[in-house]
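Shipment paperwork, digital attachment
Item: protein structure file
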Amino acid sequence: MNLADRLRAFANHDFLPRYSHRVRVGQSPLVIILLASAVAVLAGLVVHPRVFALAGGLLAVAGAGVCWPWLTCRGVRATVAFDRPRAVEGCETGVTATVTNHLPWPAWGLSIRDSKAGHAVRLPRISGRAKSVCRWVFLPPMRGEYPIEQPTVGTGFPFGLQESKRAADVSTRLIVWPRTFPVGPVPASDGADVVEGNVTRNKVGSTGDVLGVRPYRRGDSPRRIHWVQSARHDRLIVCELQSNSRPVVLLTLDADPSVHTLGPDGSREWSIRIIASLAKGWLEAGAQVGFACGSVYLPPQAGAVQATRLLDALARVEDTVPPLAATLADSRVKADAAGVQIVVTTDAGQDRVVPNSSGSARRWVILDRAGFGDSSRRHSSRRAWLNVPSAESVPHLLRHGTAEASHGS
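Attachment content:
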């Protein structure tokens, strides 16, 4: 580092970070103009009365820089609307802002801001007693309900000394679903956790293709008698058919922030994406899928309405969620223990749960926190139904990583 770089670093170094914010307040243009006005007043009292004219001019500029934006914001109304009610994270959606100027003079320098989403849109000049419509494209960075906080319309015209703003109305909100990936087949279970439906399974039932034959039992339909085999064995033989049934799956999410890494690429968001992928894929395959996370519980159901309801719930997962043990202890979750239960958590989250006694019906999806930005943990070697070492491996593992995907359900 040469001498010039050292001097530049010395000049930009913050030696008193605890008091820097107070100094920054004094650096605002409005404060500087007010200080200059005070100095001009003192100079007018001490040096010459003509300096009062300078003080008056500075105070007039400060007054116009504060009052004009405030008056402009009092006379405008803004309404923000999204083009559609739902979207997927990373997909663009249109936004329309309608701004009405009730003042008899034009409004300049207006902007609509959403500080949480981190974007601002500049609006053109709006004539007096006129309406302006502005459209732009919004790219949601992650799942959630937008706008995250109330958007504001504001202006700092004419001098930018101070920006005045007021809340804008939101006529339609946007629910952003988590990203999803193709998944493998629904895992089979040992219990009778199926309901009658229109999805063909390789289980014995009363409809579907022929699976095999067996001796006749009282009550069997005569239409199912295999007459050739009956004549050969000199007794009645009937055909066994496939069962049209829907598997029942309960997806359980551990969203406790204390066991996850946070952020759009953290293990918490990827756990939600994994749950969303399993729910969407298995519901499209005809299964009945439920969801449990903290106090949120959706009983297993099938169909497109259940997919919308479940993805909406995943989009609205709160920042603060009870631990996984509380979710598994919920009476509603225990009532569905006979079905296939998929629990998505991290290696740190599974360490906090007492080993289950529900047999093989509970399957664990374990995200390794070391692969999601937690440098303090080592890679876990524990075995689960699905081990996820990193975000890059999620699409492949969901499609081909389970035993059902490798060998068929």
